[in-house]
Amino acid sequence: MTVTVDETTENTIDVLDRGFLALDGAFASDLAVVNAARVSFNIASEEMSERDEGLIRFLMRERHGTPFEHGYFRFLVKAPLFVVREHHRHRAGHSYNEWSGRYSKLEAEFYVPDNVRTQVGKPGAYTFEPVEPGVRDATREEIEAAAEAAFASYERMLDLGVAKEVARTVLPLAMYTKYFWSCNPRSLMHFCSLRNSEHAQFEIREYARAAESFLERLMPVTHAAFIANGRSAP
Amino acid sequence: MTVTVDETTENTIDVLDRGFLALDGAFASDLAVVNAARVSFNIASEEMSERDEGLIRFLMRERHGTPFEHGYFRFLVKAPLFVVREHHRHRAGHSYNEWSGRYSKLEAEFYVPDNVRTQVGKPGAYTFEPVEPGVRDATREEIEAAAEAAFASYERMLDLGVAKEVARTVLPLAMYTKYFWSCNPRSLMHFCSLRNSEHAQFEIREYARAAESFLERLMPVTHAAFIANGRSAP
Amino acid sequence: MTVTVDETTENTIDVLDRGFLALDGAFASDLAVVNAARVSFNIASEEMSERDEGLIRFLMRERHGTPFEHGYFRFLVKAPLFVVREHHRHRAGHSYNEWSGRYSKLEAEFYVPDNVRTQVGKPGAYTFEPVEPGVRDATREEIEAAAEAAFASYERMLDLGVAKEVARTVLPLAMYTKYFWSCNPRSLMHFCSLRNSEHAQFEIREYARAAESFLERLMPVTHAAFIANGRSAP
Amino acid sequence: MTVTVDETTENTIDVLDRGFLALDGAFASDLAVVNAARVSFNIASEEMSERDEGLIRFLMRERHGTPFEHGYFRFLVKAPLFVVREHHRHRAGHSYNEWSGRYSKLEAEFYVPDNVRTQVGKPGAYTFEPVEPGVRDATREEIEAAAEAAFASYERMLDLGVAKEVARTVLPLAMYTKYFWSCNPRSLMHFCSLRNSEHAQFEIREYARAAESFLERLMPVTHAAFIANGRSAP
C-alpha cells in the first residue's frame, strides 16, 4: 500500500553550488489518498484503478485537502541561510531540526551565485534578468570576499575565547547550514505551490523543484493532478 | 534506518466490544529521533548506541520535542462516536478522515459497555467504580434498546425518502464509526499522555493503550523514556 | 487601529431552532492586514486608504495568507452535535472548549429541522429538495420522539446511579451543546469557504453564514475581497 | 471581560542596543480562561473570584492547555536576525510577517553586544561567563567592523544594479529586522517557557522577558500560576 524509499545516492539531488536535498525516507502513496477519501463511504481500494485516479483529480480540483495528509516525507537539506529563513516560514504540517551554531563550530561554506540577476519592472510586477558578465564576476567576487572576511572575523573571535553563539553573529546569510525537514503530501504541495513558482526567489525555487520531484516519483497521480490544477495546493 | 509495518492481522488490536485500532503503516524509529537531534551538531548515527539511548532520555526529560516529530504512524480506527469526539480534539500533528453519514448509510453497530461504572467522590477528584450486576444488566439493556430504537427511526426516515444527513441526527453517541488517523511520534505521545491516563474516560483509554503499544513496538527507547518521564509528552 | 466588540445582545445571532452564534469578543481590523503586509517594506499605514484596499484585494487574489492571521475572533456557539462534529474538524488556527457530558448533566434540547429535505441526483452531484409536508411532519415527529426517548433512557440510567459519561452514550446527534470557538481572520475564512458553501450541509452553513457576518462587520474590505475571490480563502 | 491595549509608548520595551518589543494590541484576560474552562460545566463567571483563581492554578498544574488559547496578543518586534531565526521556529499558535530584503533596501543597523561572554563547562552543561574587558572591546570592534564591511559590500552590489535579493546574501546575522508577531496566551507561554529560560541564548531571552511582562500585565493570575508551575507551559 505504500512505497518506502531508503537513503541512497539516487535520493540526493544537488542544488545550487554546494547544497543538496536528499530524501531521507518516505511513506507515501497515491493509494493512501484514495483510501483516506473512500473511508467516508466505508470502502477501500487495494490498488489504484482509473476511477481512483479520477477521484484524486476531483479531490485536488475541489480542494478537499485532508486525504492528502496521510503520508510522510523526510528530507535532509543543505541550503544557504537566506533560503532556510524562507523555508522555515512554512509551519502547518512541517517539522524542522537544524544544525546549531550555539554549540558547534560552523563551516566555511557559502553560496556564490552563478545566476546573478538584476531586478526590472515596477513594484508588484518585478522580473529578473541576468546581469552583464562583468557585473556577474564582480558580484561573485564581492560575495566570496565578504564571506571569507566574515568567517575570518568569526574565527578570530573564537580564538579570543568568545562564545560561538556570539561570534556567529557576523556570519552572512550566504552561509550553508543543514536540517531535517519532515512534511506530509499536503504540506509539501503547499510549499511547492508557493516556492516552485515564478514569484519565488530563484534559489528556494531550486529546492522546491527538487522536493517536488520526489512527490512526482512517489505519488505520480497526485503530482499530475497538482500540475493540472496549476500547482494550487488543496 | 526505519521500520515499516504493513497491514497484517498482527497489526490490528481489538478494542471494546466491536472496535479496533489497526496500524495501517508507519515510518518511525528511535534512530530518526537521534539523528534529528544530532543534526544540531552536524553529526549522524548509523545505528543506535548506548549514548544515543541516553540522548533520547535527555531530550524527553528536558522537553526538547521537535526531534520526536520526524516519524509517521497511520492507523485505521473503529470507535464509538463519543470516543471519536474526544479523539479529534487533538489537532497539532494529527490528521483524520472519517466515514461520513451524509452520503452513505451508516450501520447498526453500537457500543454496549461491559464496564458499567458509577462515579464517586467530589468534583475535581472523581473516581469510578463498577456498579452492581443488576444495574449493569439494566444499563446494557437500556443502551441496546435505545440504540436499536434510534436505528429503527433512522431507517423509517430513510424509507420515507428523507436525506441521510437529516435522518442520521437521531443516531446515538454509542454508534461505531471508522476513520484514518495519521500522527507523528510527538503528537502520538501527546495523545497518549492525555488519554492513556487515569483521568481519561475508560473507553478512549483503551484506544490510547492500543496506540501506545505501537509506539513501544517501533520506538522502544523513546517509549521507555516516555514512561520514565511519567508519560509527560515532550 | 482595532475594533473591539464586547458582549451585547446585538452580537448574538439566532441559528436553527434553538441555537445561536455570539461574538464574545474580537480584535480584528482591515488595517492590521495592511500593516502586516506592509511591514515587508518596513512601512505602516495609520488608516485605510484606497491603495490599502487594493493591497487587500491583491493579497486575497494572490493567496498571500499570513497577513490575514493577525487578528482574533472569539465566539460562543450553541449547536447540535452533528454540526459540532463537522465544525471541530477545522484545526489550524482554531481553538475550542466545549460543554462536557462527563461531569455535568446534559439538557434535553434537540434540533428538530424545519428544513426537512430529500437527496436527489447522483454521487458527486447531489442536490437537496424539500420533502412533501406530510413527510416533513412525520420526520419532525420521528426526531422529536427519538430524542425524547433517548433522553428518558439517559435519565433512567442516571437514576440507577450510572456515571454520566456512560449514560450519555444513548444521546443523539441532534442534541445541542455549547462551546467557545477562537480563530483568526484567515482560519475564519477557511471555515467559511468550506462551510458557507452549497456543498456544505444546510445546518452548518447557517452557522458559517452567521460567523461570516461578523467578518463582514469588522473587516469589510477583507470580506469584500473574499467574496470577490469566490470565497476561496487565502 | 477583556482588556484592550492600544499602541502607546508605554507598550514599547527597548531590548538590546537597538531593538524593541511593542505590544501592538491584545485581547486577553484571565476571565476568558476561566470561562473557556467553565463552559465544560455550562456555567460562566462575570468577574474573577478566588475560586476562579484556584481554577487557573489547577488548569496550569494539570496541563489543561486549551482554555489558555482563547486570547490574543500582537507584537511588533525589532530584533537581530539570529534572534529571529530562533523565534520563528515556534510554529503552533504563532503568526509572523517580516520586513523582506527582496524588494526593499535593508538598513545598516546591527546588534553589537554589551554582554560578550565565553562558554565554559562540558557539552550538555555549558554556562556562560563575561569575558575580560579587553576581549569584550575587541569583540565589539570585530562585530562592528564586519557588519560595516558587509553593508558596504551590499551597497556596492546594489550600485552595480544587482538585485536586492542577491546582494543581501552578504549581510550578517547581527542585522536588525522587524516583524509582526501574533500569538495566543498558550503559545506565548510555550515561547516563554523555552526562551525566558537559563538554557536560552541571552539575546532571545531578553525578548522573551519583555513579552512575558505583557502576559503578566494583562493576565496576572495566569502569569502567577505559570511562574508557580516553574514556567512549564500547559
Structure, described:
The structure is a homotetramer. Chain A has about 230 residues and is an alpha+beta fold. Helices cover about 40% and strands about 20% of the residues of chain A. The first copy, chain A, has 8 helices and 8 strands; from the N terminus they run E-E-E-H-H-E-H-E-E-E-H-H-E-H-H-H. In chain A, strand 2 and strand 3 form a beta hairpin. The longest helix of chain A has 27 residues, at about 135-160. In chain A, about 55% of the residues are buried. The interface between B and C is large, with 52 and 52 residues.
H/E element string of chain A?
EEEHHEHEEEHHEHHH
The overall pLDDT of chain A, averaged over residues, is 93
Given as residue ranges, the uncertain stretches of chain A (5+ residues, pLDDT < 50) are 1-7
Radius of gyration of chain A equals 21 Å
Strand share of the residues of chain A?
15-25%
- Label the structural class of chain A: alpha+beta
Largest sheet of chain A, if any? 6 strands, antiparallel
Query: What portion of residues of chain A is helical?
Result: 40-55%
What order do the helices and strands come in, and which of them pair?
Four copies of one chain form a homotetramer.
Chain A: E1 3-4, E2 12-15, E3 19-28, H1 30-38, H2 50-61, E4 72-80, H3 81-87, E5 94-98, E6 117-120, E7 127-130, H4 133-159, H5 164-167, E8 176-183, H6 185-195, H7 202-218, H8 220-228
Antiparallel strand pairs in A: 1-3, 2-3, 3-4, 4-8, 5-8, 6-7
Helix pairs in contact in A: 1-2, 2-8, 6-7, 7-8
